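Handout, section 3.2

Students often ask what a structure token actually looks like in practice. Rather than define it abstractly, here is a full record for Protein unc-50 homolog. The first block is the sequence as you would receive it.
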Amino acid sequence: MQPFGKVPHSPTPSPKPQQSPFDGFRRSTSLESNSSTISQENGLARLTAAAKRKKYFRRLFKFRQMDFEYAFWQMIYLFVSPQKVYRNFQYRKHTKDQWARDDPAFLVLLSFWLLVSSIGFAFVLKLHFVGFLKFIVWVIFIDCIGVGILIASLLWFVTNRYLIIAPPRGQDVEWGYAFDVHLNAFFPLLMILHLFQLAFLNSVINYDLFLSRLFGNTLWLVAIGYYVYITFLGYSALPFLKNTRSLLYPMTLLVFVYFLSLIAGWNFSNGLCYFYKYRVL
């Protein structure tokens, strides 16, 4: 019991720490710094298409920074097991947040094989030097890059418009990835029709015989079939696409044209030689 009239004792509040007028500024500056760091990290992880393209072409002539051994490994597995090549594309998506290649080593090696095959065709078709130069320009910039841009743009539009899962959840098919799929599919076609076929053009294929036509057109069937199949694998590897099996429908038309060519007497390889020879004259 306390005596009457005395005010009960209350503990004195502890003195508040003196706040500097600059503390709020420091906290806001710290928050802004953190947010800028986060946005900067996101910017590095999620580059725009223009930034990715600029980075890719910037490394195009820096051969020491390219992984040619790995690119050569990819070329081998495009024949043996193309699924493994696209598993690596999935790994790149998880580590670098992009599906398309960021190393131009594959394109450089592909250009080298285009050059080698062009030299072989120049000898087989007996092209003069100027015709050989025109032939290289046609094969690289028209047959490979030009046609590749058209096919990649068409499939890029079709997949983003009709095959993407709704809602897309912020994911879409990168145009660079669509072009990489074309390069992957083009390499086996190049090896079959521009290198392997060279050894048999003048000795077996370029004759008006059924066996010549059968052998040459079968090579075309295998080469274009590889192109369609590897293209299908490229888009089926994307988890946000549906009904990718529809990309295999051209196989039916391909087989039909193959048997029709055997019946009608069309020799695709012979026609290709005439086309290559007279377009550079």
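Discussion prompt for tutorial groups: The chain has eleven helices and no strands. How would you have guessed this from the sequence alone?
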